[in-house]
Specification:
With 293 residues, the protein is an alpha/beta fold. It has helices spanning 22-35, 61-71, 89-103, 117-122, 130-145, 181-190, 204-220, 255-265, 279-290; strands at 2-6, 39-42, 47-49, 55-57, 76-79, 82-83, 107-112, 150-153, 158-162, 174-177, 193-199, 228-236, 250-251, 269-275. Helix 1 packs across helix 2 (61-71) and helix 6 (181-190) packs across helix 7. The model has no long low-confidence stretch (mean pLDDT 97).
Length: 293
């Protein structure tokens, strides 16, 4: 079972619930890299507006992930998840190939269709046909990073004899996050990994989502086990203050038992959103990982 952590990105993630700076992001990433965790992940948003209307600012995630690649040496690196609406598919594929080179083959390209209307509206992005746009975008990106020369004439995207030069030095795994039928079909067609989030203890909802993956893989005619199931969970360190703790968070001392439960269900990679997002929480997660049998 692999275990990774989300890195701080925006308002609420930093010390005391404020905006994290680069040094805060770096400190958590280095704690994960040095502590024996398997991966680090960064969300992808322009902003988040909560139901009460409060707006939280965000750093640009790919820039941060590139910087993290340069100051770590071992952990896998991924977006949880990159929003297809924010970047052209050709640009995304070029970015992925370059970051895979910088990181020495540690990139997992996590992608999704996007969902948070306020950031779309603030930056003038279309909110219609998000999954239809994502379907075209994903095919172009996947074929490019897998070494094809791509010509594609779609409703939303067009490319002509496009390829990546230089080509990615390693095969870049694609992770897709989603659970509805169309997204599961696309996962089964193009993905190497799949994510469902956010949970506390393993529950019936998780089991149902895992079953949707199994059915999608079977329908696509792919071998059982060809897509790695990953799950996002929330873990809290009770010894550190958290401004707005999640009611579903697992206490870090209970993480070994939770890992065992997720593993029994077939999850192969846990992606933890730590509360708070500090080096100390990350260290405690790494310590808990060592206790898993």
């Amino acid at each position: 079972m692999k275990i990774g952590v989300m890195l701080p990105l925006g308002g609420g993630d930093g010390p005391g619930g404020g905006m994290p700076g680069w040094q805060d992001v770096r400190a958590v990433a280095e704690a994960a890299d040095q502590g024996g965790l398997d991966s680090v992940w960064i969300a992808d948003h322009f902003l988040y507006r909560d139901p009460e209307g409060q707006v939280y600012g965000m750093h640009e995630s790919w820039t941060l992930l590139s910087a993290v690649a340069a100051v770590t040496s071992r952990v896998e690196l991924g977006n949880m998840v990159l929003c297809a609406s924010f970047r052209d598919p050709g640009l995304t594929a070029k970015m992925a190939a370059t970051l895979d080179e910088v990181s020495g083959g540690r990139l997992i390209l996590g992608v999704g269709a996007g969902w948070h209307d306020p950031e779309y509206e603030a930056f003038g992005l279309p909110t219609d046909h998000r999954v239809g746009r994502f379907e075209e975008w994903l095919e172009i990106v996947a074929r490019l990073i897998r070494g094809e020369t791509v010509t594609y004439d779609g409703t939303y995207y067009t490319v002509r004899d496009a390829n990546l030069d230089p080509a990615p030095p390693h095969r870049i795994p694609i992770l897709v996050a989603g659970h509805r039928p169309r997204m599961m079909r696309l996962t089964a067609e193009w993905a190497d990994l799949w994510n469902t989030a956010w949970y506390g203890a393993a529950d019936l909802k998780l089991e149902e989502r895992l079953e949707t993956l199994r059915q999608a893989v079977e329908l696509a005619g792919r071998p059982v086990g060809s897509i790695t199931p990953t799950a996002g969970i929330i873990v809290r360190d009770p010894d550190q203050p958290v401004p707005d703790p999640s009611p579903k968070a697992i206490p870090v001392q209970d993480l070994p038992q939770a890992v065992t439960a997720y593993r029994k269900l077939g999850v192969e990679h846990l992606i933890i959103s730590p509360e708070p997002m500090t080096p100390r929480t990350t260290e405690r997660i790494a310590e808990a990982k060592q206790q898993v049998r």
